[in-house]
Amino acid sequence: MSEPARAMSKDHAFAELERLANDDLIRFDGPASPTLVGFAGFDPHSGRPLPGSLAGVVIRHGNTPRAPQHLDSRNALALVRFCRFLSANFGVTELHTLGVDGRGSHSDDCHGQGRAVDFAGVTMPVGDVSRRITVAAHWGTVETALTPGGTWPRGTGSRVRYRLDEPDASPLGDPDGDLFVADFFRSVYDFAAGEWQDCSDSPDPATAISGIGDPSFILHPDHPDDHPLPATSGRAAHIDHVHFQIGKSGTE
Fold first, then answer.
1. What are phi and psi of 64, to 5 degrees?
2. CA angle 186-192-194, nearest 5°?
3. 162 three-class SS
């Protein structure tokens, strides 16, 4: 098993990115360094530029294809690995985000420092059709006996579990009750727990420790942190995305 990105030094992560660039899997957008990585949209299958494409998966912010910029090299490497995992295991063609770009060296949080990803969903083949699977529609607003109206009731506190494991879970737009998405999001979570921060903000062991519903630095619709809006750390702020990060939540 490869060393998780969170446990690598910035120099080590950047050296691996350079190897991937030399193998024509990725391309940098101009000069890159261990502290600042930007990707050029590049399709490794055709060898040609393709807006937003990273390791064969087009990354979209909203409807706009945009290759990530201003990333910490560890987060950049984790993201490349994630794209390869999604493509190889699920045939994912697009990765949708609510935020991945950094904002430069003067930022004081993990997003601004290019160390975080807000994963919103994917486009991938399901049977003979291409479908867009989103955290909002297929997880974060799903109604069950535990989540009437699609939300955890007031007073639930940290007594949560993965709602898509419930027998009455039925994601929006999925009238046939096809819960392949439950396994898909669990696979996404397990991958994130292996590369980004999981149970602490230090370099954890390589194996994924937490599960959906356990305390973790991976934030999602069934997270045990029940801080209500406008707090940004709790599950209420993550009904439409899953947050991954490298390192600490504030300035590193």
1. -95, 120
2. 105
3. coil
Beta strands in 55-214 (DSSP E): 57-61, 64-65, 94-99, 116-126, 129-134
- Encode 234-250: b = buried (16+ Cβ within 10 Å), e = exposed: ebbbbbbbbbbbbbebe
Largest Cα–Cα separation, the chain: 54
**Which residues on adjacent β-strands are paired with residue 137?**
none
DSSP 137: I
Tokens of 54: 């990273």
Task: Look up the pTM and report it.
Answer: 0.94
Residue 22 burial (C-beta neighbours within 10 Å; 0-12, 13-18, 19+)? exposed
pLDDT attached to residue 3 = 92
Give me the phi and psi of 158, to 5 degrees please: -90, 5
Q: Encoding tokens for residue 84?
A: 């390869």
H or E segment to which residue 78 belongs: helix 73-90
* Residues 16-64 pLDDT 10s: 999 999 999 999 999 999 999 999 999 999 999 999 999 999 999 988 9
Residues 210, 163: Cα–Cα separation, whole Å: 16
